[in-house]
Amino acid sequence: MYLHEGSVVTKNRNRPFAIIGVNSAQAREKVRRVVKQENLTGRSFWNGQQGIRGPIAQAWSVQLWPTVIVIDHTG
Q1: Residues 19-50 as b or e (16 or more Cβ within 10 Å = b)
Q2: What is the rounded CA–CA span in Å between residue 1 and residue 36?
Q3: CA 70, CA 59: separation in Å to the nearest integer?
Q4: pTM metric for this prediction
Q5: Range 55-70 average pLDDT
Q6: Which residues 6+ apart lie within 8 Å of 11 measured at CB?
Q7: Which are the contacts of 39, defined by CB distance < 8 A and separation ≥ 6?
Q8: Model confidence at 72, in pLDDT bands (50, 70, 90)?
Q9: Partners of 45 in the β-ladder
Q10: Digit-coded pLDDT (tens) for 2-52
Q11: Residue 46 pairs with which residues in a beta bridge?
């Protein structure tokens, strides 16, 4: 999805827009490596090692990865 995210950011660069990533990798260091390797510029949060049982996934009713939630500038 990284390539797709980059194209979405490029196409919407002049609009109120952001991509926020939520990761559930087994180790935070792995997440940091991927963010650096893929040159991801958006905010990225770690959901813990519980997968879809982590606090962010639970709050947003995530049932599987990847999940895409779109929220416009009005919320």
Answers
A1: bebbbbbeeeeebeeebeeeebeeeeebbeee
A2: 15
A3: 15
A4: 0.65
A5: 87
A6: none
A7: none
A8: confident
A9: 22
A10: 777 778 888 888 888 778 888 887 778 887 888 888 877 778 788 887 888
A11: 23
- What the block records as the tokens of 55 is 């606090």
The residue type found at 45 is F
Task: Answer whether residue 59 shows pLDDT above 90.
Answer: yes
- Classified as helix, coil or strand, 40 is coil
Neighbouring CB atoms inside 10 A of 67's CB total 12
Containing H/E element for 34?
helix 28-37
pLDDT for residue 58: 92
Cα–Cα distance for residue pair 8/5, rounded to 1 Å: 5
Rounded to the nearest 5°, which phi and psi values hold at 46? Answer: -95, 125
Query: What are 22's two structure tokens?
Result: 């939520």
